[in-house]
Specification:
The complex is a heterodimer of chains A (355) and B (294). Chain A is mainly alpha-helical and 355 residues long. Chain A is built from 14 helices and five strands. Chain A has a three-stranded antiparallel beta sheet. In chain A, a hairpin with a 2-residue loop joins strand 1 and strand 2. By secondary structure, chain B is mostly helical. In chain B, the strands form two sheets. Chain B has a two-stranded antiparallel sheet with strand order 1-4. The termini of chain B are far apart. The chains are: A mainly alpha (355), B mainly alpha (294). At the A-B interface, helix 5, helix 11, helix 13 and helix 14 of A face helix 4, helix 9 and helix 11 of B.
Chain lengths: 355, 294
């Protein structure tokens, strides 16, 4: 009987998370049809879906695996570019947008996941600080590579170059698909808010089920004490790599959504650089490390708030920085913990007296 | 001949990395934390010099001294406000995220004060360039000053660590904080001193970097900072000669990569080096392989 209750508790908590997403979706739909949402905010909805997926997936690395990844934007970039490349190449071949998008998603996620494994194998043998730096390095490398990559297509097939679009040597019927720093232009705009919300639900389903599975418990055991976990026979590398690559693949999904919402996809520091990785980290930290629902809410609040308070837009990044420092100091410094405990104890005592 | 001039450029850039890496390595050795904000202290140092010279009209020497003092104070403030409360925190992630926050904060404060535009930085070095081999090889004054100051700093720091009481205290704290405290060493003070020295070095590195590569914006420090960390890992983190060797090697690799492979891929090559090192010899060239105690 007690066991039933326990299972119900996690399921209930998961269902609440799904319900929040669906309720928010419904609310947005109602407000849109009532005309209460400005076009500016409507333009933010699809990127917001991408950010939520990124925040949830980064929380898998930071909160559940307990390692810091600063290259999340890099995985997003991989997902975005591979899927946009695919969609553009097959725009005529697969006329049905839904089918094409599904393939683009799978390809984007697979490519990002593969990069996750490639980065993870060397990096996960090391501890915290090194992983952070390696993932950061990976993000920068990806951005560099994308910016010098030129790919064109003509009747003879694909042409590659790392110099410029002229050196591709295309035939007159050819077209440049990836144009170095100018990126990919003319990706079909297949991402919609509805698709984004469905993908958020899928992401949540994957992450929440992973966390509550046997593998998830193994991953959390490694986070809490690696040596103890190893000593009871948990394969540390396998589970670390598993969590990391799933997180990377989901970041790729975020990238796919992001890419299919833009007319021109370029890799700039602003969208796929260090700043983006930090922004996602801020979502995770503000929402609560390890708390999936918190990540969703933090992503929503922090994306919409600066748009609603236009005057603050100059200070947005500054506020992010202060939020990071303040949250860490308040949550983790031994003195703050002591202070909090003392005050909550006082509060509890007062309550008891009243009763 | 171009090979030699690339080599000199590489050693000069590497000397800057080495000076920055010294700060990383010292802080890492003693506080066991990665000071992400170190690179941004470089940027602040360069801005202070620029403001002092073009804004207040001070002579370059005074401006550099002022910048060193400013960064020294900044380092101590960062340490005492952001890092010290987390020194004994249960989660090592907390310190790392705080450091990222501080780095981000410095960048954005600079962005608000100085604006996002890249400004050109007038070299503070007045040493003339040296021409060798009938004009086939020119060594800029900046390169000479950079390399010489790196060597001087290196020697001074080694002497400081090995000969003085404070240096001894630093080594003791990095070895075992608890035992050092029992021996009557002021642990918090020693850590603050390390941050102060590291930040002062960052100011010097900032001036030298911006003298050789005369452009300055709020993100100037981030990339060299990260590369210097790569250099510190390369040489073996926690080791002072290691930071020196790692810095020089990384500078040479970067310049050769730029010259012979691809100028746009230079950053990617540097980071590729990091990944290879971590795969082959995670402790670095001169690093000690510390056995983990259970």
């Amino acid at each position: 009987m007690r066991r039933m209750k326990k299972i119900n508790k996690t399921t209930k908590s998961n269902l609440i998370t799904y319900a929040i997403v669906i309720a928010l979706f419904a609310a947005v739909q109602i407000l849109t049809s009532a005309g209460a949402i400005s076009s500016l905010l409507q333009g933010l909805l699809v990127p917001l879906c991408a950010y939520i997926i990124l925040a949830v997936s980064l929380n898998l690395t930071v909160g559940i695996l307990g390692e810091l990844s600063l290259g999340h934007a890099g995985f997003m970039c991989v997902g975005a570019f591979t899927s946009a490349f695919f969609s553009k190449c097959t725009a005529e071949l697969i006329p049905v947008a839904g089918v094409r998008y599904l393939f683009a998603l799978l390809i984007g996620a697979a490519a990002a996941g593969l990069c996750g494994i490639l980065v993870g194998i060397p990096a996960l043998r090391l501890k915290g600080d090194y992983l952070a730096i390696v993932t950061l390095a990976f993000g920068e490398i990806i951005k560099n590579v994308v910016n010098i990559l030129f790919i064109g297509r003509d009747s003879e097939g694909f042409h590659f170059s790392t110099k410029d679009s002229l050196s591709l040597g295309l035939l007159p019927d050819g077209e440049v698909i990836v144009n170095g720093p100018q990126g990919i232009t003319g990706t079909p705009k297949d991402s919609t808010f509805t698709v984004g919300v469905i993908l958020i639900l899928v992401t949540l389903f994957i992450v929440l089920n992973l966390i509550h599975s046997r593998s998830g418990r193994a991953i959390m055991a490694i986070r809490d004490n690696r040596i103890a976990a190893e000593s009871i026979g948990i394969n540390v590398t396998k589970y670390k790599l598993m969590a990391f690559s799933i997180s990377a693949a989901l970041a790729g999904v975020g990238g796919v959504i992001y890419a299919h919402n833009l007319a021109t996809l370029t890799a700039q520091p602003k969208n796929f650089g260090y700043n983006m990785s930090i922004m996602i980290l801020v979502f995770v930290v503000l929402g609560g490390i390890g708390n999936i629902r918190g990540s969703i809410l933090a992503a929503i609040v922090l994306t919409l708030l600066p748009e609603l308070l236009r005057g603050l837009s100059d200070y947005r990044m500054l506020i992010y920085a202060v939020v990071l420092i303040a949250m860490m100091l308040f949550n983790w410094s031994p003195k703050a913990i002591e202070w909090r405990e003392r005050h909550s104890a006082k509060f509890k005592r007062k309550k008891q007296k009243e009763v | 001949m171009s090979f030699i001039s690339y080599l000199i450029n590489g050693v000069s850039l590497g000397s800057v990395y080495a000076i920055i890496a010294l700060g990383y390595t010292m802080v890492y050795g003693i506080a066991k934390m990665l000071n992400f904000a170190h690179g941004d202290v470089i940027m602040i140092g360069a801005y202070v010099v620029m403001a002092a010279i073009s804004g207040a009209g001070l002579p370059p020497g005074v401006a550099v001294l002022l910048s060193i003092v400013c960064c020294l104070i900044l380092g101590i403030v960062i340490e005492s406000v952001a890092y010290r409360p987390l020194l004994n925190a249960a989660s090592s992630l907390a310190v790392l995220i705080t450091a990222i926050g501080v780095s981000y904060l410095l960048q954005n404060v600079a962005l608000l004060i100085f604006g996002a535009n890249t400004i050109s930085f007038d070299s503070v070095v007045s040493v003339p360039a040296v021409t060798l081999m009938d004009g086939a090889l020119t060594i800029t004054g900046e390169a000479i000053v950079t390399i010489v100051s790196c060597i001087v700093i290196m020697i001074a720091l080694t002497l400081f660590i090995s000969r003085t009481k404070s240096g001894q205290a630093m080594r003791a704290v990095s070895e075992d904080k608890g035992a050092a405290q029992l021996m009557g060493i002021h642990v918090n003070g020693t850590i603050a001193l390390t941050f102060a020295i590291g930040s002062a070095l960052a100011a010097i590195a900032g001036v030298l970097l911006c003298s050789s590569y005369p452009s300055l914006n709020p993100y100037t420090g981030a990339m060299p900072g990260i590369k210097a960390f790569v250099a510190a890992v390369f040489g073996g983190i926690g080791s002072i000669p290691g930071a020196f060797i790692g810095g020089i090697l990384l500078g040479v690799i970067e310049i050769f990569g730029k010259a012979y492979i691809s100028s746009q891929m230079a950053d990617a090559i540097v980071f590729g080096v990091l990944i290879v090192i971590l795969l082959v010899k995670p402790a670095g060239i001169l690093g000690k392989n510390v056995q983990e105690k259970v």
